[in-house]
Amino acid sequence: MSFVLISTTLLVLLTIGTGAFMMYREMEGDKNKLKKILRTNLFIFLPLLIIAVIVMVPQGINAAETEAAAGVLSSAAGLGFISAALATGLATLGAGYAVAVVGSAALGAVSEDATLLGKTLIFVGLAEGIAIYGLIVSIMILGRL
């Protein structure tokens, strides 16, 4: 477990360091180069992070099974906690994206016609409701554990 944690930390620091090095080496006031460097760094960092989680989750499940033998926690409970966290997190990300898109469109519509304010607030509220649905699903999952 410690080897996986050390190697993951090393890969993350290497990715961030490579991006910082490329940014300072090639950055000469050109924003397109900066966007390209940050995009490349992001596309390297996220798969490394996903691989690290995939490698570390089975070890966590095995640890939970050994604790279950001692009567502490079962692996189903561990996966239940992960699913509850994913339900809340992904719903919140989706709601944030929806509010950003709907909010900017609503602001444009209200700037042209002020009488549309009430109608546009309804759409922003519906977009925020996505996060509440994710929270409700998480509560239901946690209630079954």
**Could you say which structural class the secondary elements and strand pairing correspond to?**
mainly alpha
Total number of strands: 0
Q: Summarize model confidence as the mean pLDDT.
A: 77
Major sheet size, sense and barrel closure: none
* Topology pattern, helix = H, strand = E: HHHH
Q: Would you write up a description of this structure?
A:
- The chain is mainly alpha-helical.
- Helices cover 90% and strands 0% of the residues.
- The chain is built from 4 helices and no strands.
- It has helices at 2-26, 31-69, 75-112, 117-144.
- The model has no long low-confidence stretch (mean pLDDT 77).
Helix/strand layout:
Layout: H1 2-26, H2 31-69, H3 75-112, H4 117-144
Helix pairs in contact: 1-2, 3-4
Keywords:
145 residues, mainly alpha
Summary?
The protein has about 140 residues and is mainly α.
